[in-house]
């Protein structure tokens, strides 16, 4: 069997470590995963072609670059430069980090040595080399597996069911008079509603919801914006997929009506936050203090 060709332009996770720190510095020290990833794409000059490469099989719901960025964040957290909250916000642990003095090779080496030292307490030394990457891999995958499972389910539900889910999502998020139109030949408009800000200002919103496994393109954005012409409304584009860099730029292009976007990652987070088909269960963890017991 022929080996799969490796794209030499695809940065490795360790090559993304320093750009991740730079991204957080430019974001003011903290940011969501989406904000951080988008800033890294810009800093590392990652092309749209590279951003189309899926992790795993062709139907994967996570792109390879984002998967590697998850590894980068995990290494930086274990190294002590990053921390993350339960709400998915990542932040630098210090504001005075000198990026020019950071060495991604040293960071990777230090984290692996730390992990090896921890594992040798419970495993034979000969088993630790394989266990190091396994432990880190499990930590990275745990935050992505439920999203991949959820998106795979959403791909299989009927189109009108996905529209109703989007309608419920908007209602739970504070929209009212939310209607699903689903009219063909109406520029891709799937529904409309009204959002009220602070109980004072109201905005009419039209939305489009697409169950994509791939990426939304600038063409999709322009077609949706065409349906907004002549309407005093804001636009919202919801997808289970992703948006290309050019599509994101098109959504906020100067001089054109802005379009807010929700990709698959944010969609999963919102469904989890609102308990719409996603339940969070807390489990009890019991740690035994061996050192304390041995000192009795």
Would you kindly provide a written description of the structure presented here, covering whatever features stand out?
It is a single chain. This protein has a five-stranded mixed sheet, with helices on both faces. The protein has 296 residues and is an alpha/beta fold. It has twelve helices and ten strands. Helices cover 45% and strands 16% of the residues.
Reconstruct the topology from this structure.
Blueprint: H1 17-26, E1 30-32, H2 33-43, H3 48-51, H4 64-79, E2 82-84, E3 89-92, H5 104-119, H6 125-142, H7 145-156, H8 159-172, E4 175-180, E5 191-197, E6 201-210, E7 215-216, H9 218-226, E8 234-239, E9 242-243, H10 245-251, E10 259-262, H11 264-273, H12 290-294
Parallel strand pairs: 6-8, 7-9, 8-10
Antiparallel strand pairs: 1-3, 2-3, 4-5, 5-6
Principal-axis shape = globular
Average pLDDT works out at: 83
- Helix and strand run: HEHHHEEHHHHEEEEHEEHEHH
Specify Rg, calculated over alpha carbons.
22 Å
The neighbouring-strand order within the major sheet is 4-5-6-8-10
Structural class: alpha/beta
Question: Number of folding domains?
Answer: 2
Number of helices: 12
Low-pLDDT stretches are 1-5
> Major sheet: size, sense and barrel closure?
5 strands, mixed
Instruction: Tell me roughly what share of residues is in helical segments.
Output: 40-55%
């Amino acid at each position: 069997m022929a080996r799969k060709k490796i794209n030499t332009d695809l940065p490795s996770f360790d090559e993304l470590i320093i750009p991740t720190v730079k991204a957080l510095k430019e974001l003011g020290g903290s940011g969501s995963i989406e904000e951080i990833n988008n800033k890294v794409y810009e800093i590392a000059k990652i092309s749209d072609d590279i951003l189309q490469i899926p992790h795993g099989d062709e139907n994967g719901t996570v792109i390879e670059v984002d998967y590697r960025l998850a590894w980068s964040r995990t290494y930086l957290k274990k190294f002590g430069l990053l921390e993350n909250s339960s709400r998915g916000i990542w932040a630098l642990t210090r504001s005075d980090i000198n990026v020019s003095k950071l060495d991604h090779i040293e960071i990777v080496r230090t984290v692996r040595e730390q992990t090896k030292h921890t594992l040798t307490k419970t495993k034979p030394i000969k088993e630790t080399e394989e266990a190091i990457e396994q432990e880190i891999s499990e930590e990275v995958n745990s935050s992505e597996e439920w999203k991949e499972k959820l998106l795979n389910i959403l791909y299989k539900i009927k189109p009108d069911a996905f529209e109703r889910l989007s309608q419920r999502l908007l209602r739970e998020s504070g929209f009212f008079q939310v209607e699903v139109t689903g009219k063909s030949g109406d520029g891709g408009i799937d529904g409309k509603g009204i959002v009220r800000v602070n109980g004072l200002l109201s905005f009419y919103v039209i939305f489009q919801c697409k169950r994509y496994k791939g990426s939304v393109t600038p063409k999709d954005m322009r077609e949706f914006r065409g349906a907004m012409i002549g309407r005093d409304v804001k636009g919202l584009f919801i997808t289970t997929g992703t948006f290309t860099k050019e599509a994101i730029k098109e959504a906020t292009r100067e001089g054109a009506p802005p379009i807010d976007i929700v990709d698959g990652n944010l969609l999963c987070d919102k469904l989890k936050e609102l308990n719409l088909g996603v339940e969070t269960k807390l489990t009890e963890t019991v740690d035994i203090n061996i050192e304390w017991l041995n000192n009795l």
